[in-house]
Write a structure and sequence with these properties.
The protein is α+β, with helices and mostly antiparallel strands. Helix content is 22%, strand content 32%. It is globular and about 55 Å long.
């Protein structure tokens, strides 16, 4: 009888050990299979293996390409093809003259950009940041209420203008109490001018050579005859000052003078 009890205990112990061994052998095999799959895959494919958790990847944005040329020397601004003059802000604005400049998309007349001039200091700072990349016409200096945009066409209630020169971007600006249109001839006779190295000054339009203008000297435009512009020293500060001579201000669609707005 004692022998029978011992035999029963041995049978139970054997069954228990057999079950636990089967469970232990099964788990490692599955684990070894998972490890071997990941180990055999290249790293790029291993990341996509559904057995292992996937990590979120981010795509690095490429920087916007820009031309490393100061705007005042941007050669694209010498191209005045298809333009009839400029749209500019009237001089000597006061707070009571404050008005809004609406720049529209020409396709559907939706607002592209809208701001007020004269601007408060904080507003001017925000507009100046826009002028660094978003709004880059011929000239824009909001702190002094200065805005100059090449004009392509005048319409009854608006102007088609260039708001960027590179790349050339055309928008529509609504007419307002603070904006005015000037032909190129009108504009050049009350701006600050300088000239490129190959500019020649003539005694009369097409006449004898007088002297080469100094590249770093400022001049004032006085009168225009066709493609010729008479100039005087800007420092003279008087329209009665002696006229130095005549220069060509354009060659077909190319502007030959460098226009300045701050001196």
């Amino acid at each position: 009888m004692v022998y029978g009890k011992l035999l029963s205990c041995c049978l139970v112990a054997c069954l228990y050990i057999g079950c636990t061994n089967n469970q232990a052998n099964t788990a490692p095999e599955k684990s070894q299979e998972e490890v071997s799959v990941s180990a055999l895959l290249p790293k790029s494919q291993a990341a996509d293996n559904p057995i292992e958790p996937r990590t979120k990847t981010t795509v690095k944005e490429e920087p916007v390409r820009t031309i490393d040329i100061p705007r005042e020397y941007d050669e694209s601004k010498t191209n005045i093809s298809h333009t009839i003059g400029v749209v500019t802000v009237k001089k000597y604005l006061e707070k009571k003259d404050r008005d809004r400049v609406h720049i529209l998309n020409p396709e559907d007349d939706t607002i592209w950009l809208s701001f007020e001039l004269p601007c408060e200091y904080e507003e001017c700072d925000s507009l100046y940041q826009l002028s660094e990349s978003f709004l880059t016409p011929r000239f824009f200096y909001p702190l002094y209420d200065m805005l100059v945009m090449d004009c392509i066409k005048e319409e009854p209630d608006s102007y088609l203008v260039l708001v960027n020169h590179y790349p050339r971007t055309v928008k529509r600006v609504r007419k307002s109490s603070i904006l005015k249109f000037e032909t190129w001839q009108e504009h050049l006779t009350h701006t600050i001018l300088s000239f490129y190295g190959d500019t020649e000054v003539r005694e009369i339009p097409g006449g004898e050579l007088v002297v080469d203008p100094q590249p770093c000297t400022a001049y004032r435009g006085i009168d225009i005859i066709d493609d010729w512009l008479s100039i005087q020293d800007y420092e003279a500060r008087s329209e009665d000052a002696e006229i130095i001579g005549w220069v060509k201000w354009r060659n077909k669609d190319t502007l030959l003078v460098d226009i300045g707005y701050l001196w």
